[in-house]
Design brief:
Layout: H1 2-25, H2 31-54, H3 59-71, H4 75-88, H5 93-104, H6 109-124, H7 130-142, H8 146-152
Helix pairs in contact: 1-2, 1-3, 2-3, 3-4, 3-5, 4-5, 5-6, 6-7, 7-8
Length: about 160
């Protein structure tokens, strides 16, 4: 039953995530979309709370709730959700990537180092996308490790 609920809701979450990602990649002012995206994400936060009340060990619900918090710029809450998902499945590279991305956005050097660790563990789990390498490269750049940054970006 939970799988059916998640399956029905997932396209809506994916669409808001795609819009946010496109706006970020294209470096477009998202002010026009922010209110609508936040309203949808607030709805999904409540939705995933209901799912997790039924089954608190439902990994995908924790992952998607973490994504919702990330989109709402509640990065610490996102990290908490990804940690709960990783307790259920520590070998999920995608979850490690998402946790790293949220940690990176906390704008703290120690959290940035932890983000790099998450990105590296994601790669070790077999997860590798251009977005992961871009975030890893940017993280190294912020730390002043230019050789590693350039390597991640393919130079």
């Amino acid at each position: 039953k939970i799988e059916d609920i998640i399956k029905d809701a997932k396209p809506f979450l994916n669409n808001t995530h795609k819009i946010s990602t496109a706006l970020e990649v294209l470096d477009i002012d998202s002010t026009f979309f922010d209110e609508a995206i936040n309203d949808v994400n607030n709805h999904f936060e409540k939705f995933y709370d209901k799912v997790l009340n039924i089954d608190e060990n439902y990994e995908q619900a924790w992952i998607h709730k973490g994504i919702v918090f990330h989109e709402l710029k509640k990065y610490e809450k996102a990290v908490e959700c990804f940690d709960k998902a990783l307790k259920i499945n520590p070998n999920n590279g995608y979850t490690r990537y998402r946790k790293g991305k949220s940690l990176k956005n906390l704008n703290d050097i120690d959290k940035l180092k932890e983000a790099i660790s998450c990105f590296r563990k994601a790669i070790n789990c077999g997860y590798s996308t251009i977005f992961l390498w871009n975030n890893l490269g940017k993280s190294y750049y912020i730390l002043g490790e230019l050789d590693k940054a350039l390597e991640c970006l393919g130079y």
